[in-house]
Design a protein that fits this description.
Structural class: mainly alpha
Mean pLDDT: 76
Low-confidence stretches: 1-39
Membrane topology: Multi-pass membrane protein
Keywords: Endoplasmic reticulum, Membrane, Transmembrane, Transmembrane helix
Largest sheet: none
Order of helices and strands: HHHHHHHHHHH
Protein name: Reticulon-like protein
Strand content: under 5%
Shape: elongated
Helix content: 55-70%
Number of strands: 0
Subcellular location: Endoplasmic reticulum membrane
Organism: Lolium multiflorum (Italian ryegrass)
Length: 236
């Protein structure tokens, strides 16, 4: 009777010494692998204004028009090999011809003659654009200066590698093609990331963990085995 009762009873699980705390932890889920969500949305990170609306395709007609204009510019300069001076002269010539025809035909159809838009010659707009470019340039130079000083070796190596890759790409592609590819990425990557944010965050977090493991292996197997000279003690 005792043996039958003992066989039917549930035997409590006894933890062996070979089991570690990591074995008893639950497998990481998607929420733990994902990076911490930012406090601000992508729209606010991009400025939250018209530029952000264009990059995130909030106004599809405007974004599609800008993308079509960039594609047409790339086709004229890179495929058709149009000269910039020739294109500028033809554009101004076409604009002057249209204004001339409009000015001649305006009294016939009882319309007002054309006027120069104030936005084109606005001093405030040019001043704001110049100040924005100056702030961005000053910030970029300050960041590059801090990186070049070697305060963060990992960031320094990343920037050097990125510049080298960009130089190799620029050697094989024209400036117009490189500019168009960058413009195309700016109009597609933020919108795609906003749509598939969860999946991208999961992949980025997973890739970051893999890179950290790879860096630890290289550090332990290669960098730590490099012989170093004796440390000289400072004599008082």
């Amino acid at each position: 009777m005792k043996s039958s009762k003992m066989s039917g009873a549930v035997v409590p699980h006894v933890r062996s010494d070979s089991e570690s705390d990591d074995d008893r932890r639950p497998a990481p889920t998607t929420t733990t692998v994902r990076t911490i969500r930012r406090q601000r949305s992508i729209h606010r990170l991009l400025g939250g204004r018209k530029v952000a609306d264009v990059l995130l395709w909030r106004n599809r007609n405007l974004s599609a028009g800008i993308l079509a204009g960039a594609a047409l510019t790339w086709f004229l300069f890179d495929v058709a090999e149009y000269n910039a001076v020739t294109l500028l002269c033809h554009a101004v010539l076409l604009g002057m011809l249209l204004l001339f025809l409009w000015n001649v035909a305006a009294p016939l159809v009882d319309r007002a003659p054309p006027r120069i838009p104030e936005v084109i010659v606005s001093e405030h707009a040019f001043r704001e654009a110049a100040l924005t470019v100056h702030r961005k340039l000053e910030h970029s130079v300050a960041v590059l200066y801090d990186i070049a000083c070697g305060k963060d070796l990992k960031k320094f190596l990343t920037v050097v590698g990125s510049l080298w890759v960009l130089a190799v790409i620029g050697d094989n592609c024209s400036f117009t093609s490189l500019l168009f590819v960058g413009f195309l990425c700016a109009l597609t990557i933020p919108a795609l990331y906003e749509r598939y944010e969860t999946e991208v965050d999961h992949l980025v977090a997973k890739g970051g963990e893999d890179l950290k493991k790879f860096y630890r292996k290289v550090d332990s197997n290669v960098l730590n085995k490099i012989p170093r000279g004796p440390i000289k003690r400072r004599v008082n």
